[in-house]
């Protein structure tokens, strides 16, 4: 396989195929729930057919073979040749996995690995109608019909052979049967008509009459004499429209266009209706008016619109976002100067610039937005496969799939959400027999929803399973050495639920390929924290569990609280800030060697940021710290920590700038930004700060 084709053509294929394959994964899971949905069957068939066509153009033979096998299976399914069942869906989903693997190899410009022969053979077997394997030929069941089995195929064959000299390819008997099915419905007239003589290229009058009887009912074609003159071999457009209306009903004639035009045998089945149509001409006068009315209506349809989208490299969007970020910083600086200016015209200009910049910032951010459906789309397949492995009955409900958030966040949320959904399937929902004993429906329910709340996105994973037992979680944590008994005794239920995020913590006794290693939820916690998000758990024993994840809409713009420590400005992410209050620093206590402050009857650890962030010589002495101070309470999961700062500057939206090589990796520093007064502020990474210093 080579990639010598035009790069633009290859990119078009990659974009189109990626969307189709992503949609196919959802459609296949939906089909298992709605096996009789004809529209869904046709949509899946078209999806495989489209990918096969693009792959064939690029000479990706291995990909073509696998898509062709799946396409044949769905052709049989949509024609009613075989029912949809779980075993068939297992094979098709395995084939889709192979197609996705080959597609990834195409993206990486690597040689394709063919699908396993066992899968191709299984699809070939499934592409045959049910019960077709043991039966050699379909003639015996057809012979039981009141009328003898037809054989108009030899006529078609002779006609096609005669046309072969003109360069038209022959069609097989099966193709001819399908062509008749499309013209006349599933019950092909060729299976009920008497077999005509094939000794010559023509059929006798009696055979022609019997064929008309089968097509239109006995004697129906003799109602009227044929009006066209014998010497008129050409019919005009109106007559042809009436013919089609009589054959298929008014307005149904466009279905004829679905027949393959190049095949000459198509003229053979049409010859009989053409000769018979004049007999029904009086009855066709009434539907002629509606048919004629539809033609001008169709002609008034507006021409198709041109492409309304354009593909842009994400690096270009990132560059534009960076430039808008710089503009935001300049805007903040001008707004700060405008406040102190007495020039009214200057103040108005700055105010207008502020509005325009905010609109521009919002517009550019929208270009980076993607619907979270891109992540949600994979979960029906995840739940379906995992539920079959665990022999559970689970229904997944998705809500808010059109909620938009930053492209980088969509990609970053994929792995954490997979862990949470798998955890709900494995740990949350009980086995069907257990649910039935507890008075619940055998089928468990998992709901995954997304909604926008202000400048944040709220993601909820909820199940109606067994819930979590706080005492059991505490006991496991004590046995694993994560907690001591005294701490566990003082712990609330909500705090106990958060133990599942501890590294190495798992409620499973045996380790399997699904769970038991205690790393999944730890990864979730770390990932959400890196996104400046928060996660909250609420559970009721015997009722179910609800997990809420709150993340910002974008990572490019960060709301912060500006504080002053010594003479240096620092920015605390506003998502972590819980409350701010003034405190008499003399009213603190030391518990187990840790300085604490009592807030609403709860002891909170207290730290002086200047001890960590200011050089020893520049930090004020302990005596100067006595008196009132500003305390910022930050929230990390269920843990609260207090930071003492010298003064509060205010809230400000900042653009995060990465630290250069010299400062890269500095503990507790997430980046830097330019403040509204033109200075530089370091953005604090609170989890890293506590891990390194506390």
Automatic annotation (TrEMBL):
Keyword Phosphoprotein: yes
Pfam families, alphabetized: CheW, H-kinase_dim, HATPase_c, Hpt
Domain CheW-like positions: 557-694
InterPro entries: Bact_Chemotaxis_CheA, CheA-like_dim, CheA-like_homodim_sf, CheW-like_dom_sf, CheW-lke_dom, HATPase_C_sf, HATPase_dom, His_kinase_dom
This protein's UniProt keywords: Kinase, Phosphoprotein, Transferase, Two-component regulatory system
Enzyme class of the recorded protein, top EC level: transferase
Feature: compositional bias, Low complexity: 187-200, 252-299
Stretches the record annotates as Disordered: 129-165, 184-204, 250-312
Catalysed reactions, as listed in the record: ATP + protein L-histidine = ADP + protein N-phospho-L-histidine
Modified residues (Phosphohistidine): 49
SUPFAM superfamilies: ATPase domain of HSP90 chaperone/DNA topoisomerase II/histidine kinase, CheW-like, Histidine-containing phosphotransfer domain, HPT domain, Homodimeric domain of signal transducing histidine kinase
Biased composition (Pro residues): 137-153
Residues in HPt domain copies: 2-106
CDD domains associated with the record: CheA_reg, HATPase_CheA-like, HPT
Name of protein: histidine kinase
Residue intervals of the Histidine kinase domain: 339-555
Entry EC no(s): 2.7.13.3
Keyword Nucleotide-binding belongs to the record: no
């Amino acid at each position: 396989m080579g990639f010598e084709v035009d790069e633009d053509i290859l990119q078009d294929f990659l974009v189109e195929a990626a969307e189709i394959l992503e949609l196919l994964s959802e459609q296949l899971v939906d089909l298992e729930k709605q096996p009789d949905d004809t529209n869904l069957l046709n949509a899946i068939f078209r999806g495989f057919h489209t990918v096969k066509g693009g792959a064939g153009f690029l000479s990706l033979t291995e990909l073509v073979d696998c898509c062709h096998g799946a396409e044949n299976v769905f052709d049989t399914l949509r024609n009613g040749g075989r029912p949809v069942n779980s075993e068939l869906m297992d094979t098709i989903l395995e084939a889709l996995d192979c197609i996705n693997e080959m597609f990834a190899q195409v993206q990486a410009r690597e040689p394709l690995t063919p699908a396993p022969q066992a899968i191709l053979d299984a699809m070939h077997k499934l592409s045959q109608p049910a019960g077709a394997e043991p039966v050699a030929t379909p003639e015996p069941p057809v012979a039981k019909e009141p009328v003898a089995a037809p054989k108009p195929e030899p006529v078609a064959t002779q006609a096609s052979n005669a046309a072969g000299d003109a360069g038209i390819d022959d069609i097989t008997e099966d193709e001819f049967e399908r062509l008749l099915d499309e013209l006349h419905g599933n019950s092909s007239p060729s299976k009920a008509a008497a077999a005509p003589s094939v000794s010559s290229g023509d059929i006798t009058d009696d055979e022609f009459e019997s064929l008309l009887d089968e097509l239109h009912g006995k004697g129906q074609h003799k109602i009227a004499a044929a009006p066209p003159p014998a010497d008129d071999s050409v019919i005009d457009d109106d007559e042809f429209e009436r013919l089609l209306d009589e054959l298929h009903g008014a307005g149904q004639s466009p279905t004829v266009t679905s027949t393959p035009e190049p095949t000459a045998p198509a003229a053979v089945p049409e010859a009989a209706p053409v000769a018979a149509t004049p007999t029904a001409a009086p009855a066709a006068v009434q539907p002629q008016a509606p048919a004629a009315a539809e033609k001008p209506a169709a002609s008034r349809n507006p021409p198709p619109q041109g492409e309304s989208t354009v593909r842009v490299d994400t690096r270009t969007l990132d560059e534009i976002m960076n430039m808008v970020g710089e503009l935001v910083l300049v805007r903040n600086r001008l707004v700060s100067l405008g406040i102190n200016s007495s020039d009214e015209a200057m103040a108005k200009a700055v105010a207008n610039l502020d509005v325009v910049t905010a609109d521009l910032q919002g517009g550019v951010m929208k270009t980076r937005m993607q619907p979270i459906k891109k992540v949600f789309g994979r979960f029906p397949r995840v739940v379906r496969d995992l539920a079959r492995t665990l022999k559970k009955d689970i229904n997944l409900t998705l809500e808010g799939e059109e909620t938009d958030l930053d492209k980088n966040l969509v990609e970053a949320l994929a792995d954490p959400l997979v862990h949470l959904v798998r955890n709900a399937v494995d740990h949350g929902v009980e086995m069907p027999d257990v649910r039935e004993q507890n008075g619940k429906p055998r089928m468990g329910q998992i709901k995954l929803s997304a909604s926008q709340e202000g400048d944040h996105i709220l993601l909820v994973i909820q199940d109606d399973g067994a819930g979590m037992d706080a005492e059991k979680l505490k006991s496991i944590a004590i046995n694993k050495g994560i907690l001591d008994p005294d701490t566990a005794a003082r712990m609330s239920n909500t705090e106990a639920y958060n133990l599942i995020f501890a590294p190495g913590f798992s409620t499973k006794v045996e380790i399997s390929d699904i769970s038991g290693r205690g790393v999944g939820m730890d990864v979730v916690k770390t990932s959400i924290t890196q996104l400046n998000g928060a996660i909250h758990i609420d559970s009721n024993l015997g009722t179910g569990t609800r997990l809420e994840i709150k993340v910002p809409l974008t990572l490019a713009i960060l709301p912060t609280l500006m504080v002053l420590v010594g003479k240096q400005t620092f920015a605390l992410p506003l998502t972590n800030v819980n409350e701010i209050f003034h405190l008499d620093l003399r009213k603190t206590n030391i518990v187990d060697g840790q300085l604490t402050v009592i807030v609403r009857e709860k002891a909170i650890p207290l730290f002086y940021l200047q001890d960590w962030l200011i050089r020893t010589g520049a930090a004020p002495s302990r005596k100067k710290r006595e008196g009132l101070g500003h305390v910022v309470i930050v929230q990390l999961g269920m843990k609260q920590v207090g930071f003492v700062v010298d003064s509060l500057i205010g809230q400000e939206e900042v653009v995060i700038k990465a630290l250069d090589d010299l400062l890269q990796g500095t503990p507790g520093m997430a980046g830097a930004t330019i403040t509204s007064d033109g200075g530089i502020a370091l953005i604090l990474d609170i989890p890293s700060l506590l891990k390194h210093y506390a």
